[in-house]
Design goal:
By secondary structure, the chain is an alpha+beta fold. It contains eleven helices and 13 strands. It has two domains: 149 residues, Aminopeptidase, CATH 3.40.630; 151 residues, Gcn5-related N-acetyltransferase (GNAT) (Aminopeptidase). Helix content is 37%, strand content 27%. A ten-stranded mixed β-sheet has the order 3-4-6-13-7-12-11-10-9-8, sandwiched between helices. Strands 1-2-5 form a three-stranded antiparallel β-sheet, sandwiched between helices. Strand 3 and strand 4 form a beta hairpin. The chain is globular.
Length: 314
């Protein structure tokens, strides 16, 4: 059995595996030959496994995040009754082994999902760590309580928008991409991912029944905003979104996020805004009352040539 086959079999035994750890997700965003796994076993029992992207570009070997994937996450088996100190020691031993099995690389540059908090094993091996933040609404069981935690201005926008805006589900990924692209146009930036790439993700997510495209429309049929929502058993994720600046005063985007949260409550346990660190976006996401939650950005450059190349681009 190959390492990938062991990983897939192992993940199938775990009830709460993240969407972004699934083999089908990695096949979609990386390509079937552009991700691999490290597996730590003891007497035939898997103690931990980790799927990571890997590719070659301009002669360099890169382990870095595929687009539209919020983070990586090693999977570790814990045992009933483990005391906290023993659990940490076990975790670090498993992580040490998983890291040691990584192939030679020129660049390692990964974000980790918020569940991963132990940077020590990486630190001891010369990796650097930066803390980034997202916002999580960690309990969707009481929507009244969730709504009460919104800023007053957001609640006002939602109540205003409810009079004029309708939220509908759509399968039109091309239409979504068009609305999503407006966000980058407003910043004078090119969309960092292609329509074809988004279509590949959409086909895979639709097949696995874990996505919704939500549109906010007015009575004339004008689309004010759109959100692409994905989820697993533990969390929903605001993967992509966009809005038409023409209608920025309508409150449609706030209503759309509220509707995404409500629909997520029927599917999973929490809602992850997936960033952003941009000041204006951070302020907007924070206004929905989520808990500011750190996640790790871990990096290492082994190639002197690549290090110089990256320095020259700054």
């Amino acid at each position: 059995m190959t390492a990938k086959e062991k990983y897939i079999s192992y993940c199938n035994t775990l009830p709460n595996i993240s969407l972004f750890q699934q083999a089908w997700w990695l096949d979609t965003v990386c390509g079937k030959e552009k991700w691999n796994v490290t597996v730590h076993e003891n007497n035939g029992n898997i103690l931990g496994a980790w799927a990571y992207p890997i590719k070659r570009k301009k002669g360099f070997s890169l382990i870095n995040m595929p687009m539209l994937t919020p983070g990586s996450l090693p999977v570790i088996t814990y045992f009933p009754g483990q005391k906290p100190a023993t659990k940490i020691s076990h975790e670090q031993q498993v992580l040490d082994e998983l890291i040691n099995q990584l192939p030679k690389f020129d660049l390692f540059d990964l974000y980790f999902l918020p569940d991963y908090k132990n940077h020590l094993s990486f630190h001891w091996k010369g990796f650097t760590q930066t803390t980034r933040y997202t916002y999580l609404i960690k309990d969707l069981s009481s929507l009244d309580k969730v709504f009460d935690e919104f800023n007053a201005s957001i609640r006002t926008q939602i109540r205003k928008a409810e009079k004029e805006i309708t939220i509908t589900e759509s399968d039109d990924v091309e239409l979504f991409y068009k609305i999503n692209a407006l966000t980058f146009k407003r910043q004078s930036k090119a969309v960092p991912y292609s329509l074809n790439y988004v279509k590949q993700i959409d086909i895979a997510c639709k097949k696995n029944n874990c996505r919704k495209i939500l549109l906010a429309k007015d009575k004339e049929g004008n689309i004010h905003a759109a959100i692409y929502l994905v989820w697993d058993t533990e969390s929903a994720y605001y993967l992509m979104g966009g809005a038409d600046e023409t209608y920025k005063s309508s409150g449609a985007y706030s209503l759309l996020i509220w509707e995404a949260i409500k629909r997520s409550s029927q599917l999973t346990k929490q809602f992850n805004f997936c960033g952003s660190m941009l000041p204006a976006v951070e302020r907007f996401f924070r206004s929905f009352g989520g808990e500011q939650t750190p996640y790790l950005h871990i990096k290492k450059i082994n190639s002197k040539a690549l290090k110089l190349l990256l320095a020259l681009k700054k």
